[in-house]
Q: What sequence folds into this?
């Protein structure tokens, strides 16, 4: 019943931009903090960005701060990740995560940054 479906991934050149979306259903979206995590080839999973349930507070991993922006729409039950100035090291599978007492994870969407 709980679903988190990521979309918007793809191939982009270094310096380019991409916008990821996550559509949530099956739970009370507005009660959950939302996050984006990623795991690149040969790398450990890392937090990319997080946002509180009302959208009032955001936080970012050091490697993406100033380049990425997380946002949410509690009417549409969606969370977004705007990625600018992309670098090859941003290449990873990006996961949407909903967190309250426990967490729900999406299946991920591939982002590849390459020329």
A:
């Amino acid at each position: 019943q709980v679903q988190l479906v990521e979309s918007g991934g793809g191939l982009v050149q270094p310096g380019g931009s991409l916008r990821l979306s996550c559509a949530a259903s099956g739970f009370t979206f507005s009660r959950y903090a939302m996050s984006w995590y990623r795991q690149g080839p040969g790398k450990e999973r890392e937090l990319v960005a997080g946002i509180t349930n009302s959208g009032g507070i955001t936080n970012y991993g050091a490697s993406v701060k100033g380049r990425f922006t997380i946002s949410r729409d509690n009417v549409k039950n969606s969370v977004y990740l705007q990625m600018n100035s992309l670098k090859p090291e941003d290449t990873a599978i990006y996961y949407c995560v909903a967190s309250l007492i426990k967490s729900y994870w999406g299946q991920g969407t591939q982002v590849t940054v390459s020329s």
Summary: The chain has no helices and eleven strands. The radius of gyration is 13 Å. The first strand starts at residue 3 and ends at 7.
